[in-house]
Amino acid sequence: MNSKPIQIDSASVPAHIAIIMDGNGRWAKAQGLERTAGHVAGVETVRTVITAASEIGVKYLTLYAFSTENWNRPPEEVAALLHLIVVALEKETPDLVKNNVRLNVIGDVGRMPAESYDSLQRSIAATAGGTGLQVNLALSYSSRWELVEAARRIAARAVAGELTLEEISESTVDSMLTTAGIPDPDLLIRTGGDSRVSNFLLWQIAYSELYFSPVYWPAFTAEDFLKAVADYQRRERRFGLTSEQVSAPDGGPIG
Ligand code: IPE
Ligand code: IPE
Ligand code: MG
């Protein structure tokens, strides 16, 4: 194809992009392969997207790799997925280090088998010095799990007399989430053709721009990723204000 290269404005690159990487199973089925082959192929796309995100200067990339609900899939698929994560981490960690990427994990990782847990901890430690893109891998993650955990922690502090009810604010909740210290996603991408958020970052995406791609995750290219970013850059984010307020030359209410 001789389509024009996608133009990205370096002044308004989203600082945080979250991705629901969906469609591995359907991609595999369409090729006459087992679902697991789709997950294997999906690892290549993770590589591609990490590289593309680093190149345009994204600071945080949060990838939904395995949800709380995904534990209910057939045990063979769960085992294959968890094992694949270990294999991918071992294989990719040296390149992550070379590319200055820092790996972080969000989710109920205590539920992971020891093999996966240990391998994650090794990759996190190996990439801890990365000062470029931070990749947050959401594993055994769901937003409702995270919010219940946050509620418990806030209640524990209140019961212990460390926090009064009046002191509980949005920033208290923020600070109790797995994403504490990370800015909310500017852009949420879901591949695979479905338009839903499937229990991902429900609090954090309050004002994210949503982008749904019909492309199955293993077939999603760097160009598809850049198309999503370019689409984001054409939008006006108003945060409840009027268009006039948002476009007011300096002095506007959001400064
Ligand atoms: C996304 O692909 C990967 C995970 C949820 C782990 P799926 O496995 O959900 O693929 P589809 O949606 O069935 O095609
Ligand atoms: C969402 O995909 C979770 C991940 C991509 C890890 P699912 O395939 O589990 O989502 P639903 O079940 O179609 O909503
Ligand atoms: Mg799916």
Structure description:
This protein has helices spanning 24-30, 35-56, 75-98, 114-126, 143-159, 170-176, 222-233, 243-247, and strands at 16-20, 60-67, 102-106, 134-141, 187-190, 209-212. By secondary structure, it is of the alpha/beta class. The chain is globular.
Brief rundown of the structure:
By secondary structure, the protein is α/β, with parallel strands linked by helices.
Sequence-ordered SSE layout with sheet pairings:
Blueprint: E1 16-20, H1 24-30, H2 35-56, E2 60-67, H3 75-98, E3 102-106, H4 114-126, E4 134-141, H5 143-159, H6 170-176, E5 187-190, E6 209-212, H7 222-233, H8 243-247
* Cofactors, ions and other ligands in the entry: 3-methylbut-3-enyl trihydrogen diphosphate, magnesium ion
Beta strands, count: 6
Largest sheet: 6 strands, parallel
User: How is the quaternary structure best described?
Assistant: single chain
Q: Provide the low-confidence segments as ranges.
A: none
Secondary structure: helix percent: 40-55%
Strand proportion:
5-15%
Structural class: alpha/beta
Overall 3D shape: globular
Global Rg:
19 Å
Mean pLDDT, to the nearest integer, reads 96
Key descriptive features of the protein:
binds magnesium ion, binds 3-methylbut-3-enyl trihydrogen diphosphate, 255 residues
